[in-house]
């Protein structure tokens, strides 16, 4: 086993696929060129020390001590560390060792670019390799490629079981594996289209050479704690509620909305007829069906053929469905999306869990910086308080998670 190992794990941008992955839908994704660098060095004792350069904190875990009944406050980064360590030790007994782990990052936190999932992936890759978990028979049997690894790490985060690898306490969010797929399976200079439950690659689309992605971080943190966690999980659990209605009415045992839709050609219309009009569940169902089944395939085709006008119109529809169907947008993210389009962006949308976070805009690369400055200036005029905390960055689709040598 190695004595030292370092991994870089990128953040991700979700062009399309708002809350579709865990419901068995599809997403259009990319890794970005910023992320976490996780460096691990073995220790002689059984102490695990993890230091976050961003949080400026170090936490310690005695690998031989009983698991604590409670963790630090909800949302504290140590909860993600404990979740990964506890799950890996439970699934692969005998494969753990003391280590010093340092986490460095240039990824904005709570900005919708999945800094928390990147931490989960980075810790699992670095600590797992240092402990030789990839050599455990249970690992080799279940985690056969990067797609399966992404699925498994999604289950590490949400606490669910994965095949023979029993579930364990997660971080409290009922999300899927979209973030983990983008981080592990993204491709430089390409968007990747994936379907979920199970994870399967559907397409890769070259990103236009003369375009860039400008991300505006709204200054409203996309937290998944407290009341925000409750609102986030409402979006997630409503998909399960719809599946429950379907199974009760039909006697079937479909696991996801995606399973229902692909079961027969008329299933989507039949399902619409079971949900009361004007309810949140109907809005959630319509959003899923339109986003996953119509908008994403059409948007991928438009991007592949260079039809940026059609691509932009489809992204606008996705944004509107998030506002009306998911109800997960804030006035700030709505304003950023509208301002980007008014300023001439080819396409723009909020992304991630919602309830704050970031908005992406596709613009000509040659003018990306000037676009960003005007975009954030206009935003600060409308929202002075979050506008003071707002930031921006320019990126393109980057490579997936990889080992850092030397």
Written overview of the protein:
The chain has helices at 77-91, 115-130, 137-142, 146-158, 178-185, 226-250, 257-263, 267-272, 280-304, 308-326, 331-342, 368-382, 384-389, and strands at 4-16, 26-42, 47-52, 57-62, 99-105, 190-195, 200-206, 211-217, 347-350, 358-364, 391-395, 402-403. It contains 13 helices and 12 strands. The strands form 2 sheets. Strands 1, 2, 3, 4, 5, 6, 7 and 12 form an 8-stranded mixed sheet that branches. Strands 9-10-8-11 form a 4-stranded antiparallel sheet. The protein has 2 domains: 4-205, Ribosomal Protein S5, domain 2 (2-Layer Sandwich); 209-395, GHMP kinase, C-terminal domain (Alpha-Beta Plaits, 2-Layer Sandwich), CATH 3.30.70.890. It is globular and about 60 Å long. 43% of the residues lie in helices and 21% in strands. The longest helix is centred in the middle third of the chain and has 25 residues, at 226-250. The protein is of the alpha+beta class and 406 residues long.
Please indicate the percent range of residues in DSSP E strands (runs of 2 or more): 15-25%
What name does CATH use for the topology of the largest domain? Ribosomal Protein S5, domain 2
Q: Care to count the β-strands?
A: 12
- Overall pLDDT metric: 92
Domain unit count: 2
Biggest beta-sheet profile: 8 strands, mixed
Taking the alpha carbons of the first and last residues, their distance comes to 17 Å
Pfam families: GalKase_gal_bdg, GHMP_kinases_C, GHMP_kinases_N
Organism: Brachybacterium endophyticum
Domain Galactokinase N-terminal: 5-41
Domain GHMP kinase N-terminal: 80-134
């Amino acid at each position: 086993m190695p004595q030292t190992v370092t991994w870089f794990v990128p953040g991700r941008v979700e062009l399309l696929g708002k809350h579709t992955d865990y419901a068995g839908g599809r997403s259009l994704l990319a890794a970005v060129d910023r992320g976490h660098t996780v460096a691990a060095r073995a220790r002689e004792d059984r102490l695990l020390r993890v230091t976050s350069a961003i949080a400026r904190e170090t936490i310690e875990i005695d690998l031989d001590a009983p698991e604590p009944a409670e963790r630090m406050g909800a949302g504290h980064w140590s909860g993600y560390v404990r979740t990964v360590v506890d799950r890996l030790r439970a699934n692969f007994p005998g494969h753990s060792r003391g280590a010093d782990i340092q986490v460095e990052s240039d990824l904005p936190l709570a900005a919708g670019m999945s800094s928390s999932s990147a931490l989960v992936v980075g810790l699992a890759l670095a600590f797992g390799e240092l402990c030789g978990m990839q050599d455990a028979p249970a690992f080799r049997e279940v985690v056969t490629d990067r797609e399966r690894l992404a699925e498994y790490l999604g289950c590490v985060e949400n606490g669910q079981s994965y095949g023979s690898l029993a579930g364990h306490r997660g971080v409290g969010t009922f999300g899927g594996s979209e973030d983990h797929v983008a981080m592990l399976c993204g491709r430089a200079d390409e968007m990747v289209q994936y379907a979920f439950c199970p994870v399967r690659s559907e397409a890769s689309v070259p990103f236009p050479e003369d375009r860039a992605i400008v991300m505006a971080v709204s200054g409203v943190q996309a937290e998944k704690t407290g009341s925000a966690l409750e609102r986030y999980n409402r979006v997630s659990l409503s998909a399960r509620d719809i599946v429950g209605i379907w199974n009760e009415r039909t006697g079937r045992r479909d696991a996801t909305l995606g399973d229902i839709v692909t079961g027969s050609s008329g299933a989507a219309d039949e399902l619409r007829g079971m949900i009361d009009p004007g309810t949140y569940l109907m809005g959630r169902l319509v959003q899923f069906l339109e986003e996953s089944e119509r908008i994403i395939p059409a948007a991928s085709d438009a991007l592949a053929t260079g039809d940026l006008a059609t691509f932009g119109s489809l992204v606008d529809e996705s944004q509107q469905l998030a506002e009306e169907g998911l109800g997960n947008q804030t006035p700030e993210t709505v304003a950023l999306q509208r301002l980007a389009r008014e300023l001439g962006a080819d396409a723009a949308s909020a992304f991630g869990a919602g309830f704050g976070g970031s908005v992406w805009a596709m613009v000509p690369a040659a003018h990306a910086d000037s676009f960003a400055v005007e975009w954030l200036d206009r935003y600060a005029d409308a929202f002075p308080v979050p506008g003071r905390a707002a930031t921006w960055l320019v990126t393109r689709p980057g490579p997936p998670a990889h080992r850092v040598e030397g």
